[in-house]
Task: structure prediction
Amino acid sequence: MHSNPEVTIVVAPRERFSYSRESLESIYEHTQFPFQLIYVDGGSPAHIKKYLETQAAEKQFKLIRTEYYLSPNHARNLGLRQVNTKYVVFLDNDVAVTPDWLKAAVDCAEETNATVVSPLLCQFLPLYEEVHCAGGESGIKLEIKSDETIRRYLIEKIHKQGKKVADVRPQLQRQETGLAEFHCMMVRTEIFHQIGLLDEGLLNTKEHIDLCLLVANAGGKIYLEPDSLVTYIPGPPLELSDVGYYMLRWSDAWELASLKRLREKWNLTEDKYFQNKYKRLGWRRRMTIIDPISRQLGLGNRFLSKIAGKLLGKADRLLNYYITSSYARKHLQNDSNQNPPTQPPNSVITASSQG
Result:
């Protein structure tokens, strides 16, 4: 714990626990700028729980533990309620940072009066080589039809995804943008007095879009600061102890509920954007869990792998329904934390970036 910090880092679980050690060690190795740390541990397995308890005692950070899994915004809000510094950084538990990442973000906010600062966000291993998000666009496009009905379409665009950092870094400079992601973003804490806590009705997807729209609606600014560089490292592979949380986190029920909440909250038209999301339900589970097991069971035979995949897919849907129904009965019913904040004004929002 550093003295007189202006920043609190809130670490929350993203989709697994098996990168927790590497991520936490990265924070303490590469963050010289003063900070407080609040670590939210939503039902991690015993060996991770023990590791985090040891580290919290040794490094004197605040550890908030629940014995059940948490949706990301629920976890972030548990941390956010404890924050009393000028800035809060939301950081997923599968992110590695680089030297001076935090100082660069704070310098950006101080010099531009930004409400939200996004680092140059990378993805996958090796670290810091491939871009995940270099800013982007979010907003709502208004269209008036010939019968005078109004359609409202969601704008979501990520810049430079999949490009090599070495290729795009020379072109990037600090600039106003329209998109930041919860893998890592720094937020001026006072904005939450205007917009309320993060919306826990968004259980697993598009939480970052919701926040960006709310910030823009409140007159805030979002900046990309490419001198702040971090990487998020998704699975696969998963450890066996990750599978339960991963299946809940990316469940069909949570995604459908989140998309419905986003649609109703911002009065969005149920267009191709949403239809495509419905068609792709469960794609992360297929990619990360079902497909690797199918290939193993198929022993190199494509036909056998396909049969195994179909059978596993049916089992996955049944298991997924059981997991989400059971969780909802135990942890979502009569939970005041799940009440969404006040609905925002039904106005046209645009928060776009340059280039």
About this structure: The longest strand covers residues 222-232. The CA atoms of residues 252 and 317 lie 8 Å apart. The radius of gyration is 20 Å. Residues 335-355 have pLDDT under 50 and may be disordered.
